[in-house]
Amino acid sequence: MPTTIDGRKVSKDIKNEIVQKVDALKAEGKRVPHLAIIIVGDDGPSHTYVKGKINACKEVGFEYTLLHFANSLAEAKLIKQIDKLNEDEDIDGFIVQLPLPDHISVEHVNERINPGKDVDGFTNQNFGSITSTHHLLLPATPFGVMELLKRYEIETKGKECVVVGASRLVGAPVSMMMLQDGLATVTVCHEHTKDLAKHTSQADILIVAVGKPNLITKDMVKKGVVIIDVGTSRVEDKTKKSGFRLSGDVDYENVAPLASYITPVPGGVGPMTIASLLVNTLKAYEAREI
Cys-Cys crosslink for 39: which of 83, 97, 170, 204, Cβ 3.0 to 4.6 Å? Predict the structure, then answer.
């Protein structure tokens, strides 16, 4: 049987480490890190994610500010709000929750954020630092993936790593991190890749971030593979009170017996995204306080 990579446990460990640092700041009479969150509209899942981030701030003792705007908010007004947060000395870092309404350019928004306060790690400056020896604020989910591999002492150097999904949010940055920091040999697959199984079956480490339930089946992996399943989709399930369940990109039940390590969905990578956000906020705070 594989070792289950417990993202909830690792996330809790990271939060406990942050609590110790926050307590030390309080003991010295210093202010604590302050995270601001902007959300536009009433997208249900987005509000759930934001609630989780606020609860995490409470857990570790961070200050937080929530700014909620109507779906009709003009892009220019959102940019103006971002400028205010950039200039606010009380705010160490902030995020603009995605997705945004169609009339607002995500690229315009991301590039307006001060990179020093970009705790999601989405600006070009932070994104580009992945390939540098001096990392800035790294994209939260990929950073969480790397932290799981590190804390479970999974060897990456020289391993064949296959990343399925090439998005800017996960696939592209995590592939660069595996190459730069993990020293792995990396193959990136995407929607135009022919014969996906040909590539995934060669992987020592398989990272999947597509959002297609059960995309990876048991005939697509080799025995002993390490699987990091980033995908999270809602699948109809009438046995659940909510009417749905969460499913990853990997057919967990049938693939898990072949794996050496595997992340479950939920409870794997998901909790690490918020933990990484907290780490970035603390890092942004420390950079400003130096």
Answer: 97
Q: Could you give the CA distance from residue 49 to residue 162 in angstroms, rounded to a whole number?
A: 28
Q: Would you call 97 a catalytic residue per the annotation?
A: yes
Query: Is there a shared CATH topology between the 29-114 domain and the 140-270 domain?
Result: yes
pLDDT for the residue numbered 290: 64
User: Residue 97 carries which DSSP code?
Assistant: P
CA-nearest of 166, 179, 240 to 210 is 166
Question: What's the rounded mean pLDDT across residues 206-232?
Answer: 96
Identify the active-site residue in 97, 117, 118, 249.
97
Active-site pick, 6, 92, 120, 251: 120
Angle between helix axes 171-180 and 140-151 (nearest 10 degrees) is 40
Region 234-250: mean pLDDT is 80
Asked, as a colleague might, if the bond just before 266 is cis with ω within 30 of 0, I would say: yes
What residue type is assigned to position 272 of the chain?
M
Computed from CA positions of residues 191, 194, 195, 198, in that sequence, does the dihedral angle turn out positive or negative?
A: negative
CATH number belonging to domain 140-270: 3.40.50.720
157 labelled catalytic: no
Q: CB under 8 Å to 115, separation ≥6 — which residues?
A: 123, 125, 126, 136, 137
> Is-catalytic flag, 90?
no
What is the topology classification, in CATH, of domain 29-114? Answer: Rossmann fold (3.40.50)
pLDDT digits (tens, 9 = 90+) for 11-61: 999 999 999 999 999 999 999 999 999 999 998 888 989 999 999 999 999
User: What angle in degrees, to the nearest 10, is found between the helix axes of 140-151 and 7-27?
Assistant: 100
Quote the tokens at residue 168: 């800017």
Domain boundaries, given as residue ranges, for the chain: 29-114, 140-270
Q: Sign of the CA dihedral 250, 122, 133, 147? A: negative
